[in-house]
Write a structure and sequence with these properties.
eight-stranded mixed sheet, 6 helices, alpha+beta
Length: 287
């Protein structure tokens, strides 16, 4: 019997946002992307976890902040792993930090949170009942996970040791490639490689699992961090809608290779990128 999962170890599989006012975030993202959100925590739980869906498929979640000192609102990246405890050992050996030891999420899976040596935080997901996002690469769903780092060489070493990732030059920038991921995609959806080639995608693009970029000297206050990109049908319309809903357009829509893109902050300050696929932009230089 074929395996139904769209993920293999080393592939980002889920995103959620931790919010000081989750109900306000639910209203914002529901209005922005058309998400239907369901509060999934049992009655009496100290926090909330609203799972967002499009067409009945899970796309992301909005979470209340954990107890203790409140942290800034942010979007979080989860990477699919076979064994969260084994991954924690790899993180330590590679020089990263274990921010939260692996623990079970009843009825869902096992997770842990880490930071790479430059301080960028991320999570891992050992799936059980919850098998990651069911809808991706469609308007209103996750399109990419993005690492911006102050230590590109250090990141190359760390993520290579933990997830077997390689840095790949895709012309418009750099990306994380997972050897064998293209084989998995081709088996899951025959014709994937041919379709990418016909579109003019860079060599080995089928192995790409995320993007990576070095933070320049012109951003002295920027910190290493993971971010998320959502696909949209119209970047300009999304930027206008976000402003109407109380968000901030941090970077106005602009054209780049393959896309038209904008950076938005939600009302609590969590930033994300919204990207419209524009094939006729494929020959534009990176921005």
């Amino acid at each position: 019997m074929s395996h139904p999962d769209r993920y293999i170890p080393g592939v980002p599989c889920w995103v959620d946002t931790t919010q000081p006012d989750p109900e306000a975030a639910v209203a914002f993202y529901g209005g922005l992307f058309g998400w239907e959100l369901e509060q999934t925590m049992p009655a009496g739980s100290p926090g909330t976890y609203h799972v967002a869906r499009l067409g009945g498929g899970d796309v992301a979640a909005v979470s209340s902040q954990p107890g203790g000192a409140p942290a800034p609102a942010a979007w979080n990246t989860y990477v699919w792993v076979t064994d969260a405890d084994e991954t924690a050992d790899k993180v330590r050996t590679a020089g990263g930090a274990v921010l939260s030891e692996p623990f079970d999420v009843p009825g869902a899976g096992r997770m842990a949170s880490f930071a790479d040596p430059a301080g960028a935080a991320f999570l891992v997901w050992e799936a059980r009942e919850h098998r990651g996002a069911a809808v991706v690469n469609e308007p209103g769903s996750l399109n990419f996970n993005d690492l911006r780092t102050r230590d590109l060489d250090g990141a190359r070493s760390f993520y290579g040791a933990v997830f077997d990732w390689e840095v790949l030059d895709i012309g418009a920038g750099l990306a994380w490639a997972l050897p064998g991921y293209g084989d998995f995609l081709e088996q899951r959806t025959p014709g994937t490689r041919e379709n990418m080639a016909q579109m003019g995608a860079p060599e080995r693009f089928e192995d790409v699992v995320a993007s990576v970029a070095a933070i320049g000297d012109d951003e002295p206050d920027a910190t290493s961090q993971w971010g998320v990109t959502f696909g949209v049908a119209d970047a300009d319309a999304i930027a206008a809608r976000a402003a109407d809903l109380g968000g901030e357009v941090v970077v106005a829509p602009f054209d780049a290779a393959w896309v038209r893109t904008t950076v938005i902050a939600d009302p609590a300050g969590a930033r994300f990128t919204a990207t419209q696929f524009v094939p006729e932009n494929k020959d534009l230089g990176g921005s």
